[in-house]
């Protein structure tokens, strides 16, 4: 990654996740102030920008690919980001969202929207992205450059990865995090 005087540009978003990985990002606390001198978050649920820029140095994706919107976001991040990080167990191995893979999707939808609902049960068809038959980890949809496992990955691991990349080194976060940690 470039270590020029200009800031490293970053984009993040969540696919099918709980946003806990982004909360872990915020858990870097005062270190975020320090990082703000070196990175520029151009697009993220954490900032106001609503359009993914044409070219971003670093993309960070939380969550698995469970619906058509997730799929499109994953493809867009891969297209627009020079380096792509799979953040957290849902992105890395499917984790909680992939638990539905053991069941038929139609049965899952029936269970969620009809069987367990007492008042006006109905399956939403408008304004929601279509669920895909199988939940996939990010790397089965697009090429991933770096994995940070954990549920969520600890703030220390995210900070380590970012500071190593800023320094122009290739980080190995496995010493600082593990699946389910
Ligand atoms: S890895 Fe854990 S914390 Fe991160 S989105 Fe998935 S369930 Fe939430």
Class per helix and strand makeup: alpha/beta
Q: Give the full name of the CATH homologous superfamily.
A: NADH:ubiquinone oxidoreductase-like, 20kDa subunit
Helix content class = 25-40%
- What is the string of SSEs from the N terminus onward? EHHEEEHEHHEEH
| Global Rg | 17 Å
Give a list of the ligands. Answer: iron/sulfur cluster
Write down the overall geometry.
elongated
Summed up:
This protein has helices at 20-26, 31-35, 68-80, 89-93, 105-115, 155-166, and strands at residues 8-14, 39-43, 56-62, 65-67, 81-87, 131-136, 146-148. With 181 residues, the chain is α/β, with parallel strands linked by helices. The chain has a single domain (8-171), classed as NADH:ubiquinone oxidoreductase-like, 20kDa subunit (Rossmann fold, 3-Layer(aba) Sandwich), CATH 3.40.50.
What does this structure look like?
The protein has a 5-stranded parallel β-sheet with strand order 2-1-3-5-7, with helices on both faces. A two-stranded antiparallel ribbon has the order 4-6. The protein has 181 residues and is α/β, with parallel strands linked by helices. It has helices at 20-26, 31-35, 68-80, 89-93, 105-115, 155-166, and strands spanning 8-14, 39-43, 56-62, 65-67, 81-87, 131-136, 146-148. It has a single domain (8-171), classed as Rossmann fold, CATH 3.40.50. The mean pLDDT is 94. It contains 6 helices and 7 strands. Residues 17-18, 20-21, 62-63, 88-90, 95-96, 151-152 line the site of iron/sulfur cluster (SF4).
